[in-house]
Amino acid sequence: MKKVNVVKIFIKMLPRYARVSLPMFIVLQTLSVAHGIFIGLLAPSMQLFFDRVENYAMGQRPLSAAITGLIILGFVQIGSSIIAGIVQFTRKMYYNRAEGVFSLELHEKINKLPPICFEDTKMLNHMNKAFKGKSESVQFTERIIGSITFFAVYFIIMSAYLFRVKPILIISLLLIFIPVLLTQILRTKFFTKAEDKSAPLRREFDYYENCMTGRAYFKETRLLGAFMFFRKQYKDTLSILNKIRFHAVVKSDLAQLGVQMLSLGGHIGILLLLLNALLNGHISVGAFVAIFASVDAMFHLMTRWICYNLGDVASSFGRVQHYLNFLQIPENNGMDVQVPKNMDISLRDVSFTYPNANLRAVKSISFHIKNGETVAVVGENGSGKSTLIRLITGLYVPDEGDVLYGKINTKEISGRSLFKNISAVFQKFQCYQMTLGDNICISHIDISKDDSGLDKICVQAGLDKNDSQFIDGYNTMLSREFDGVDISGGQWQRIAIARSYYRKHRIIVLDEPTAAIDPIEETRIYNQFAKISKNKTAIIVTHRLGSIKLADRILVMKQGKLVEQGTHAELLTNEGEYARLYKSQERWYKD
Ligand SMILES: Nc1ncnc2c1ncn2[C@@H]1O[C@H](COP(=O)(O)OP(=O)(O)OP(=O)(O)O)[C@@H](O)[C@H]1O
Asked: N or C terminus of the chain: which is more exposed, having fewer CB within 10 Å?
């Protein structure tokens, strides 16, 4: 990562932050400046009041002057409290809004990155850091702006006031600054060290807790009697964690005690300065009372500024930089073109290696799929079937060779153009914690759901929406966590199939679509599939060789290579890899 300084990062963040809502931004910053002015005016207005009371007591001024002083002091006090409340409220609103806007921007950015990024560990780490940086970027920007619009304004007014009362009193700001700064340095030193040591342990400890009590784990944990195992791991990790925390707290408390002594010294120093000035007649009683009463507020504000504003900026700076760098990653989206609906797909000498992998997952593959053809891809585990599907659909582009839709190369066009006519059921399909209807219709949010169209699709996918489990029909929530229902793996798979049918498509890809479905229903689903995919290009990946006789052609993969292709009958006659796989499955049923 390129090294840049806080100022450069802030300059990049400021316009992004202000753009969230310019009018609200201006109001917030104006209010923040006003808040700084009001707080800064507290000491002078207090002095004014006490001076006038003293003058009145000595008969030098009328009572009305003291009352006016009281009104001014009250106005400044009440005004500062009201503005503080409004600033806090507005800041919170702005914060939430900015978080929402930045999150959406980041989601859109990720959506534009090539899908292969999700296979790259470095990229996934980068993404992870960008998410953290995004969350901290709002606070980072706000803390710096606050330092300027509130703290700088306050300290300038306070310095000017102290200077006007007696120049030497400016030293009191230094007497406050030094102990507070020391506290922050020590706090950061001890806690950062402890945090570095404890963060991985905390993740481990949370994980064990989840293994004991989490919904996804409870079946195995109970049945295999693994509770005591996780309990021990949890206890061991907890005791190490507690030791680290204990040492950090002891060290930090001791340091804090030392610094508190220093702060006390600061307080005494200011008191002596003030007493000296008062006794020598350099300042009035009013000024003495006002400054002495403001010392606590100055300590408090200095602590807030150094510990929270400067401290947070220093600790989040690296992550914010990551976030901004992530937004700069080139998107390489390719051209938006109109891909013709009816075209052949050709693979020419295609090879592909996953990022951070040594071996090629797919090696020098060439074949041609005619428009409207149904092709099945078979092969042993790890032979490259799913990778081949990702290359055909354009999710990934080959390192070598080309995938062509007619004459259009998948390397040159945008995913948006390419995916327009493609639908798919993936091997690891998603079970969305949403209603049955939403689970099927996610591909077209702008189309109003028409029940009769949905009914037809459900029948084709072998899904019965009148099943007693779908208590509210298409509105049934499919998640226990959201007060809905749990359904079986087979039913989820049918929903995934219905989802793929619902999307308008010319090409459909089914990667192990019926692994969780019983054989009788599987045959019915494949027969339905043959009907609906008529005149459409269909690619099916499956291990169940009995169900792919319907394919016009079967491609057989082995160790990343295409080793055979032909119809079921041709391949059986060939007595090659397909015949070997088929016969080994057939034997199970015959025996
Ligand atoms: N994300 C990945 N990163 C690195 N290597 C991968 C990744 N995904 C798959 N591979 C490797 O690529 C090869 C082909 O995997 P692929 O998933 O395409 O095989 P498959 O035939 O679909 O397997 P299965 O039948 O088990 O689903 C395997 O050696 C696998 O280990």
From this structure: C
